[in-house]
Every structure is written in structure tokens, then in C-alpha cells.
Amino acid sequence: MPKTNIHVIHENSAWVEPLRAAFAEIGAPFEEWFISDGLLDLSAVPPDGIYYNRMSAASHTRDHRYAAELTGGILAWLEAHDRKIVNNGRALQLEISKVAQYTALSDFGIRTPRTIAAIGREQILSAARRMSGSFITKHNRAGKGLGVRLFHDVDALRAHLETPEFEPSVDGITLIQEYIRAPEPFITRVEFVGNKFLYAVRVDTSQGFELCPADVCQVGDAFCPAGAPAAAPQFRILKGFSHPLIERYQRFLAANGIGIAGIEFIVDREGEIYTYDVNTNTNYNPAAEAEAGIYGMRAIAGYLERERRRLEQSERIPATT
To answer: How do residues 222-244 score in pLDDT, each as one tens digit?
Structure first.
């Protein structure tokens, strides 16, 4: 086994299965660091290699309540030892906070829906009163579309808050966000690997919308930013997709330590584009990829293996004086 390995940090084995297969196809040496509970010895030295962080904002829904917090410590430890990390500590910060995500996107002139963060039921209602029309709620620490519901007035939200169906975000922050009405029932998700554009996929929301494209995802969300009831979505990779947003997205990703991600946007009736989600723990739809002949996990495996070899080669070159 080579000294320099690929280390995959994650908390969901099912999501890693396609990546394992992709590594096996090219013979890339890798190890998995499964984070549920665990310990971190800060006096230890991390193994050599390249580290790929796939920690999910929704890890707490799989009984891994503090997996993201421990991963944050692990990434800080790795960074202190100058290890190569794909999706570093800053990337994790954006993964687990929509507030951080939206403010970072705005730094690059990327428009997001008007959003107000609130803690406490009275403050949630106060935030809703500031919206001029229909609005949605969502969790600040989201993933799986947690807490996403559509409301047309404050009274409907007030009634919802009094029911057991209301569940606050795991970090306590509920987002009130303007409802973006699309003239056509679809959103677009743009995938990047190694900060390079891989492909764009059109998600048909006419019969529903599932935030995770992987087959293993089981999501029962009632609403999405496009306002469609959830059911089995249809994914189609757009051949020859090109848009000025791609370059802005790339600059945003590079500035925030994100090498691999999927970014979702929606277009309203006036043609305005709103970016509403960045997934640093991206998954892919196998049916859409088979039809297009493009495979995200193979692209990730190839990218990480190239980076591993580059790192291994640089470590073999003796320092000059």
C-alpha cells in the first residue's frame, strides 16, 4: 500500500458505495474515516495523504448528532499539519449553515432569495411579517430539505408553529425565505469536481422534487423552493450547458475551500436567477448519468487519484538548498 492514501471522511456508507466502486476501477488506494462517535488525539500526527471531506449537514438525522462538530475539529487538526484537504473546514462551515452560505455567495455577486434568520417562535412570526408575499421556512442546518414548507400568510405559519409538525433546526435557527415562483417546473443543479464544471442537470419538479438525487435518498418533504409537492423527480443532464454563473460559482468555490460541490438555482418569471443551495456533499443520479454517459463519482475518483499522485511525487522530490 502506498504511503500516500486518499482518506474519505464521511458518515453515510450508502452514499460512499459508488465512490468505492470508482476507486476500485482505477486502483486508487483509499481509506474511509467513518464519523459517528469517536475521538481525536490532538498530539498525534495525521497520516500522509489527501483528505476528502464528505460530511453532511443532515448527519444528525442518521443518529450522528455530533459528527459534523467532530469533523470540524478533525479538519482544523489536519489543516494545522498542512494536509491536503478537498472541502476543508470553511467548506464544512458553509455546508452546515445556510446563513454562512448565502452571505458567502453574495460576496461574489450571486443572488440568493431574501432570507431572514430567526430563533424562537415569536421571532419566526416577526420575520414572516416582513415578507411581502408567500414564503417558505427551512432549517439553517439543512440537508434533505429539512423544515421546508410553503406558506401564503402569517396566520398559516402561526397555526403550523402550534402543531407537533413544526420541528426547529438542530442549531435552533429557522429561516424565513421569499417564495420564488418559477414559470416552468424545474430547477438546475450545476456540478463541479476539482473546481471544474462537470455538468448541469435539470430537475423536473412537475411531479415533485427531491433534494438528493441519489437512489438511496428517502425524502418525504412537502415543499421545495419551486413550490411543488414532493414525489419521484426526473433528472436530465443538459448537454452543452453554458452560463456566466459558472465562472462566478468557480470563484466562490475556490475562495471557500470547496473542490467538489453541486449548486442549485431557480429562475423566476422575470428571468431572475436565484441560487439557493450549495451541496459540498454532492451525490449524483445514476439514471441521468447513464443516459448522458457522464459519471460524477468516477470524475471525483479520478481527480482525487491525480491529486494523490501529485502529492506523492512532490514528497519524493528532495528539498534543495
So the answer is: 333 333 333 444 899 999 999 99
- Which residues form the domain of 263? 181-295
What whole-number distance in Å separates Cα of residue 187 and Cα of residue 68? 28
Give per-residue pLDDT as tens, 158-210: 999 999 999 999 999 999 999 999 998 889 999 999 999 999 999 987 764 44
pTM of model > 0.85: yes
Is 198 in a helix, a strand, or coil? Answer: strand
d(CA 257, CA 248): 15
Q: How far apart are CA 139 and CA 37, in angstroms?
A: 24
Three-state DSSP state, 222: coil
* 201 touches 285 (CB < 8 A): yes
272 shares its domain with 311? no
- Spatial separation of the C-alpha atoms in residues 275 and 265, rounded to whole Å: 4
**Do residues 151 and 223 both lie within one domain?**
no
